[in-house]
Design goal:
The chain is 38% helix and 17% strand. It is of the alpha/beta class. Helix 11 runs parallel beside helix 12. The model has no long low-confidence stretch (mean pLDDT 96). Bound molecules: adenosine-5'-diphosphate (ADP) and magnesium ion (MG). Magnesium ion binds next to helix 13.
Length: 399
């Protein structure tokens, strides 16, 4: 577990100004947020600081304004959603430095919250300009990072501030780091990894890292087709990166040497077109895929065997759906395996950690999101962590 300070290490903070980096980059539709999970994640940290009498200044980015003010990307657009989730009024402050910030701090009472404008309106944010960071730091007594999902970026408010002010991990950051550490940093063995999704090329670094760390590598989704093809299976019209045959073989060799068993499906669900419940859908052995068919899901026998593998494991880390889960019946393998993992977790025999945009959607679709040990909603940061990279925003918190 990386060594970092948390809110427990803060002493008396009444009347002090807390600069808190949160993730308020909410998906929007017609002026309001369609999903406030990120605000809910930040709530425990922010409310704890308020209860302890600090003045809380929220730092966040919103969209990609590329270093300029952009009328449609002000954080004021999410103010209402944040107030609703926090159950508290907050003051919008249309700057991040300068007299407006200073006056606002004067107006804020102890336990009040101010929301600064989009940090990406200033080029110094993404450039991680130390002068820009110092400008912001001048208004705060300490810095808290509660935005794991932005920790793969070395920006002024995700990384730079941690070098200038006393820095602490927020509660959501703390939970995320503990869960990730339990999954791959220092896991209970044996460990299984499920890697699925569309393409091998987008997850090469993930696969390379995992083969050296886990005992079982379960490959599903479109990427399984590339591995099957590398083993000489004719995958018909399936999504398949034939140019990555050598890479797939190298990964399987590396796994062999590391004592990692690679599991590929031996039965699959195929169809002639990608549509919901097409008349051409059937399940067959991987060696029986016709030239005009596509593999769209892992088959039921393979899922049963994979369930037996999970029963022998203590830890599971999962990224990527097993099939084209957006369309029935190609959600079957993902849903079935997710339910097995959820049941094992609830029985106390498995620690299960999952992440990735489509993976979270698939696990919600399977109705098991609350039954996994931890589900990370951090897309890019979660993948970089699965690649074994040290995230700059996390590294900067180390003591
Ligand atoms: P995540 O967002 O969780 O990292 P990915 O984006 O890598 O996951 O992969 C999700 C996509 O992979 C989904 O859109 C899904 O339809 C697609 N997919 C999974 N299996 C197949 C398959 N056999 N053929 C084509 N696409 C697939
Ligand atoms: Mg995706």
């Amino acid at each position: 577990m990386p060594n970092f300070k948390t809110l427990d290490d803060l002493g008396e903070i009444t009347g002090k100004v807390a600069l808190v980096r949160v993730d308020l980059n909410l998906p929007m539709l017609g002026g309001s947020a369609t999903d406030v999970t990120r605000v809910e994640a930040a709530k425990p940290t922010v409310l704890e600081l308020c209860e302890r009498g600090a003045k809380v200044l929220l730092l966040a980015h919103f969209g990609r304004p590329k270093g300029q003010r952009h009328s449609t990307m002000s954080t004021s657009f999410v103010q209402g959603d944040v107030e609703e989730v926090f159950g508290k009024e907050i003051m919008f402050i249309p700057e991040v430095t300068g007299p407006v910030v200073e006056q606002s701090i004067g107006i804020l009472g102890n336990g009040d919250i101010g929301l600064l404008d989009n940090v990406r309106f200033w080029p110094g944010e993404e450039a991680n300009d130390p002068e820009f960071a110092k400008g912001i730091a001048a208004y705060g007594d300490f810095y808290i990072n509660d935005a794991f999902s932005a920790a793969h970026r070395a920006h002024a408010t995700t990384e730079g501030l941690a070098h200038i002010l006393p820095a602490y991990a927020g509660r959501a950051m703390e939970r995320e780091l503990a869960a990730l550490d339990a999954a791959l940093g220092n896991p209970e063995q044996p460990v299984a990894a499920v890697v699925g999704g569309a393409k091998v090329s987008s997850k090469l670094a993930v696969l390379e890292n995992l083969v050296g760390k886990v005992q079982h590598l379960i490959i599903g989704g479109g990427m399984a087709n590339t591995f099957l093809a590398a083993r000489g299976v004719d995958v018909g019209k399936s999504l398949c990166e034939h140019d990555l045959t050598a890479t797939a073989n190298a990964i399987m060799d590396k796994a062999d040497h590391a004592g990692c068993t690679v599991h590929l499906p031996y039965d699959v669900t195929v169809a002639k077109e990608f549509a919901a419940n097409p008349s051409s859908v059937r399940t067959c052995n991987v060696h029986e895929v016709a030239d005009d068919e596509m593999i769209l899901d892992v088959g039921p026998q393979a899922v049963e065997a994979l369930g037996d593998v999970l029963k022998t494991c203590r830890t599971l880390v999962w990224n990527g759906p097993m099939g084209a889960f957006e369309m029935e019946p190609f959600d079957s393998a993902t849903v079935a395996l997710a339910r097995i993992a959820a049941a094992l977790t609830q029985d106390g025999s498995l620690i299960s950690v999952a992440g990735g945009g489509d993976t979270v959607a698939a696990l919600n679709h399977a109705g098991v999101a609350d039954d996994f040990t931890y589900i990370s909603t951090a897309g890019g940061a979660f993948l970089e962590w699965m690649e074994g990279k040290e995230l700059p925003g996390v590294a900067a918190l180390r003591v």
